[in-house]
Write a structure and sequence with these properties.
Blueprint (H helix, E strand, L loop, with lengths): L1 H7 L2 H35 L6 H9 L3 H17 L10 H38 L4 H27 L4
Helix pairs in contact: 2-3, 2-4, 2-5, 3-5, 4-5, 4-6, 5-6
Length: 163
Amino acid sequence: MDGFMSFLNNGNFLAYLGVAVAVLFSGIGSAKGVGLVGEATSGILIDDPDKYGQCIVLQALPGTQGIYGFLIGFIIMLNTGMMGGTVNLSLETGAYILASAMPVGFVGLLSAVAQGRVAAAGISVVAKRPDQVAKAIVSAAMVETYAILAFLISLLLVFNIPM
């Protein structure tokens, strides 16, 4: 039990948890968002497979939050030495890392689902008025703004952690 408790009382555990928060939550949100748009896309491709090109752009948009979370997780791993296998972080540093991963993880989770809903609604625009696809893309991209802001905050926080 002592070994397990000492594991929890150092920064390594919190740093690994930070990587998990960034990657898991943003990835779950992206999977959900891309899935929502995929379901809507399938409905119109039955009638008109030529609209696939317009639909795939809308379907790809909610996937970016997962990429942002992956990048933050990767940067944390590089900065802490996790990639080399030697990690010895203070509890304070681990807490900073965990806190820095939270914006991209949680905003990524929520914004990817919201973006998926907007993009799925945009699929009905493509179905009825394919010439208006740009408006549907812009509407979905508006949600992306907040994912980008969260990514930038996480990035700035990670780069300013004293190691």
